[in-house]
Design brief:
By secondary structure, the chain is of the alpha/beta class. It is about 25% helix and about 20% strand. InterPro entries: GH (IPR017853), Trehalose_synth (IPR012665).
Length: about 750
């Protein structure tokens, strides 16, 4: 099934006919470009956004009706209307907003379920958002200990050609509207989801994309040079006398990517910044640079123009310009955020692609400054400050250096996705050796990144990232101890990447695929299966499920038994395997192998006969079964996760402080030492918690030794309540771990099993 088949066009009615609402599914996604009225709630009633249902005969700048229709579809217009509804209101001054507060965010939502709209199997006739708001699902979430749902992108995405909507090119991360995509539900269903979550003590997390849009109404108006709209984007008008520098746009396309030579020529002519620090999603013949040229476009002033525009990601994702004199891009993004928080009832927002908000030409002829730019920090401060100002919090997916994550987090988002340790714990499991994981944990602490500020996630909709940018960019020449020698950061990154590729893909497992230069497309379960020697999907039988489950629970323990947020997806909760590549062959044909890991799944067993989601994604194989089945079995994966989270909650470890990552006697062992101090560094002699994990498939007898431990204190296994020893005068104690086992230990403290209170012994 091709991506185009998932998103088919819908014919436009004639002007003589009265357009009627059309019920669409994801498999018919060239939607009529006539969205319903945006319904503001009480504090936004002044906005009165309205949209045109007119049917212009010609879709170009000669038709005033077409221009007016585009304006009414545009995010910038919505932002202007929405912002006026909040401006001057007392609600804008009720919350502190200057500084990030990770622990406040964690108290709001400590354990997240990360959803993916096109992969959730729902009851026939029930939308994605309605399914997420189902009381039975939230009963299951509450039983497990999940306190928030991250919906994933659910607003309209893709583009507009003429006046037809075109398909999303990147899983709905190419947003073109503030409206909910009808393929996923309605605004009322989103609000109902927020209400149900609140009734269960939970929250809803939405997305904004401050780095780019899709090629929707805003981009089409920008191409036509309409008012402030060109100021939204990094786009430059190329005079007609220099069109010879630009490549021809093939028939049926609206733009074409520039090759390196054209990029260089345009930079030398002073038109564009030119080469940037890297080309994300590089693919010869498809994306060789970060710049594309448009076809000739007639402007509203009667002038035909060609533009060159920046896109860090795919060609259909034009980058937003955060320092244009109109500040149009900033207004668009802030308006989108206010809509999600103020109108839909979200408690938090993910900032997607927020590390690429500043770009500057280099004076030395080297690549332009496009990552870790101060403008990105400033823009993130503005976005995150606005989110906090209206009572929410935000988190960022910033896959840059540890210093970038630290610096952006000092003034920007409250939380950051844990790209620091995610590839490292996969490497630890793949190799049965935690040396690199211990290095990443220690480096993070040394550079000032508090683990409580991180979202420790298992699988999401993206690949297992192995870019390791911290080591191969800023610190590529620095020396690090690894495997009994000192090697450079660049060599370290190369070694880790080679280890992961060798252990998880190719001959090791033909069902996991490399995704460009970013990482490996796989599920957590399929990554584990590969490390356990299962080379094909057919080789994974029922007899292998228990070993996969144990290793999977080990990774849950690593992410849960340290300060910060824990994030789980349905692919984790159900133990999903990738779909065979042959079932998504058209989707992965151009190199986006991530589609194999996005198999459809039925969380609550509401549609057992379904072979695909309503969006058309093929159903994947679940190793663990649905949540109702698992919660009825005390030894299941979900029931075991419930026990892991209960210990985390009872001790308030999620808002504690990490103090040591000690050396270990066995290479497969990992030890993390934490103060249970709720982040208060002035607290004297708080209880200590120690997480001890075995990343190997063999039994371990070992010793835990750390200067953070106080001698002669009791060591209690919180799982059983048994005292397993005392810290000796060398500040150590002995432990025993089964394969893939883990211990949650309290030092000088115990948990009252009735009240959950911790007391010093």
């Amino acid at each position: 099934m091709s991506e185009d088949e998932l998103l088919e066009p819908v014919d436009t009615p004639d002007t003589a006919e009265t357009p009627q609402p059309v019920d669409n599914t994801f498999s018919g996604e060239l939607y009529p470009a006539r969205p319903p009225r945006l319904r503001p709630r009480a504090n936004l009633r002044a906005s009165r956004i309205q949209r045109s249902f007119s049917d212009p005969r010609s879709a170009d700048a000669t038709n005033a009706s077409y221009i007016e229709w585009l304006i009414r579809q545009s995010m910038l217009r919505d932002a202007q209307v929405l912002s006026r509804g909040l401006s001057g209101q007392p609600s804008m001054w009720r919350n502190p907003y200057a500084k990030p507060d990770a622990r406040r965010a964690i108290r709001t939502a400590s354990v997240w379920f990360t959803a993916y709209p096109i992969s959730l199997i729902t009851e026939p006739g029930k939308s994605y958002l309605a399914a997420l708001g189902d009381e039975r699902l939230w009963d299951a979430f509450e039983a497990i200990g999940i306190s928030a749902v991250h919906t994933g992108p659910v607003k309209r995405a893709g583009g507009i050609t003429g006046w037809q909507q075109t398909a999303s090119v990147d899983g709905h991360f190419d947003r073109i509207s503030t409206q909910i995509d009808p393929a996923f539900g309605s605004e009322d269903e989103f609000r109902a989801l927020s209400d149900v979550a609140e009734q269960h003590g939970g929250s809803v997390i939405d997305d904004i994309v401050p780095g780019h849009t899709g090629k929707g109404a805003d981009f089409r108006l920008a191409e036509m040079a309409y008012k402030d709209y060109p100021g939204i984007y990094h786009m430059v008008e190329i005079p007609e006398e220099d069109w010879a520098l630009l490549p021809e746009v093939p028939a049926g396309r609206d733009s074409v990517n520039l090759n390196a030579e054209t990029e260089k020529q345009l930079a030398e002519q002073g038109y564009i910044i030119g080469q940037l620090q890297r080309v994300i999603f590089y693919q010869p013949g498809t994306k060789e640079t970060n710049w594309s040229a448009t076809a000739p476009v007639l402007g509203v002033d009667g002038i035909t123009r060609r533009w060159v525009y920046l896109h860090y990601f795919k060609q259909g994702q034009p980058s937003i310009n955060w320092l244009d004199p109109t500040f149009a891009g900033m207004r668009l993004v802030i308006g989108d955020a206010l809509h999600s928080l103020g109108d839909l009832g979200s408690s938090a927002l993910r900032l997607d692609a927020n590390g690429f908000l500043g770009v500057e030409k280099s004076a030395s002829g080297s690549p332009g400054w496009s990552e870790g730019h101060p403008l990105s920090e400033a823009a993130n401060h503005l976005i995150a400050g606005m989110v906090r100002k209206v009572g929410g919090f935000s988190f960022q997916e910033l896959n840059l250096t540890i210093e970038d994550i630290r610096d952006t987090g000092r003034v920007g988002a409250d939380l950051s996705y844990d790209f620091i340790n995610r590839p490292a714990y996969h490497h630890a499991l793949a190799m049965g050796d935690t040396e690199f994981l211990r290095l990443t944990l220690r480096t993070s602490l040394e550079l000032g990144v508090d683990p409580a500020s991180l979202v420790h996630a298992l699988q999401n909709h993206d690949e297992l990232t192995y870019e390791l940018l911290h080591w191969e960019t800023l610190h590529r020449a620095d020396l690090y101890p690894f495997r009994y020698e000192e090697i450079t950061g660049a060599k370290l990154a190369e070694t880790i990447r080679a280890d992961l590729l060798g252990a998880i893909t190719g001959d090791a497992a033909d069902y996991n695929r490399v995704f460009t230069t970013n990482g490996i497309a796989c599920t957590t379960a399929s990554m584990i299966a590969a490390t356990q020697g299962l080379t094909t999907l057919d080789a994974i039988t029922d007899e292998h499920v228990e070993n996969i489950r144990l290793a999977h629970l080990l990774l849950v323990m690593f992410n849960a038994w340290q300060p910060g947020v824990l994030a789980l997806s349905a692919w984790d909760l159900l133990g999903m395997l990738p779909v065979p590549a042959s079932e998504v062959s058209d989707l992965i044909a151009e190199g986006d192998t991530r589609w194999i890991e996005r198999g459809a799944h039925d969380l609550m067993n509401v549609f057992p006969a379904a072979t695909a989601s309503s969006s058309g994604m093929p159903r994947g194989r679940s190793l663990y079964g649905s949540l109702p089945e698992q919660l009825a079995d005390d030894n299941s994966f979900a029931s075991s996760v419930k026990k892991i989270l209960a210990l985390r909650s009872a001790s308030a470890l999620d808002i504690g402080s990490q103090v040591d990552i000690p050396n270990v006697a066995h290479p497969g062992m990992l030890v993390m030492v934490h103060r249970l101090d709720e982040g208060d560094a002035t607290l004297i002699d708080p209880p200590l918690q120690v997480t001890v994990l075995n990343f190997s498939g063999e039994h371990i007898e070992g010793t835990v030794r750390s200067p953070a431990l106080a001698s002669r204190r009791t060591v209690t296994d919180a799982t059983t309540g048994d005292e397993i020893g005392r810290v000796d005068d060398l500040q150590s104690f002995a432990v025993s771990l089964p394969p893939y086992g883990g211990l949650f230990l309290l030092i000088g403290a115990e948990i009252d099993t009735m009240t959950g209170a911790i007391s010093i012994v």
